[in-house]
Amino acid sequence: MATQYTQSEWQSIIDSAERGLPSSYPEYKAPAPGTPDFAKCIDHTLLKLDATKEQIDQLCEEALKYGFKSVCVRLNWVERAVKNLQGSDVVVACVVGFHEGTYSVSEKVKEASMAVSAGAMELDMVINYSLLKQQQYPQVFTDIVAVRDAAPHPVILKVILETSKLSKHDIIAGCKVAEAASADFVKTSTGFGGQGATEENVRLMKWMIEPILKVKASGGVKTVNDCVAMMEAGAERIGISNGVCIMKEAQALLGDDTTCYQ
């Protein structure tokens, strides 16, 4: 259940969380690369504005072939992806407020509602990180919880922080606000706004939200080793556009002679 606080209460919660940071973080076990459990950590992603229906169809075919958790697309492609994946366990994720995060609350709610109506089972919404940086925590909460209310469970809500734009204090704040707003994941990055996921930020985010929420690492994750590093830092989902290449690289490590050409 979502819980709103006053500005002073938010500041106290966030300051307390920052004071409680450990000197070192736990390390987590990653699924073996190339296995079905590894594939189920991957959101197979295509967010280019000029994506074609043929590319969306290919994205879905690849997700089915390799057993990815989801395909992540823009709103205009949700219905097509849902149809392509009907009858499988691969779900459709849709971005909301992408990629700047500064859309109005009503626009984000409309986008979320349309995505869910079209069959999306997961939403990756961009936080209003400008307000977060200004420490306007009640407004940031309202932004997230409005989307949560428009897309209640079982829809999965991931909140994109855009960590490259944020200080450590801001990341901590984003995690605590997302948790209070009943999100399911906090996610590092859009992949369109500077540096993507880092192990340091994934560890910080994992510490802040465990065990209530999960972490998705996205942006700059290009190899099997990158995926494993993010999982060992605490990420339980990886957002990548080169999922096929990652799986071929992983299968090669398992002895498959398949190679990936980029």
Strand content: 5-15%
What fraction, in percent, of the residue positions are helical? 40-55%
Quickly give the structural class.
alpha/beta
Give average pLDDT, whole number: 95
Q: Secondary-structure element sequence?
A: HHEHEHEHEHHEHEHEHEH
Sheet with the most strands? 8 strands, parallel, barrel
CA-based shape: globular
**Distance between termini?**
45 Å
In what order do the strands lie side by side in the largest sheet? Answer: 1-2-3-4-5-6-7-8
Radius of gyration: 18 Å
Please work out how many helical segments DSSP would assign: 11
* Total strands: 8
Low-confidence spans: pLDDT under 50, at least 5 residues?
none
Walkthrough of the structure:
The chain has 262 residues and is α/β, with parallel strands linked by helices. 44% of the residues lie in helices and 14% in strands. Strand 1 (42-45), helix 3 and strand 2 form a beta-alpha-beta unit. The radius of gyration is 18 Å and the shape is globular. The mean pLDDT is 95.
Map the helices and strands.
Elements: H1 7-19, H2 36-39, E1 42-45, H3 53-66, E2 70-73, H4 78-85, E3 91-96, H5 105-117, E4 122-126, H6 129-133, H7 137-150, E5 156-160, H8 168-180, E6 185-187, H9 199-209, E7 214-218, H10 224-233, E8 237-240, H11 243-253
Parallel strand pairs: 1-2, 1-8, 2-3, 3-4, 4-5, 5-6, 6-7, 7-8
Fill in the keyword field for this structure:
globular, 8-stranded parallel barrel, alpha/beta
Summarize the structure.
The chain is an alpha/beta fold and 262 residues long.
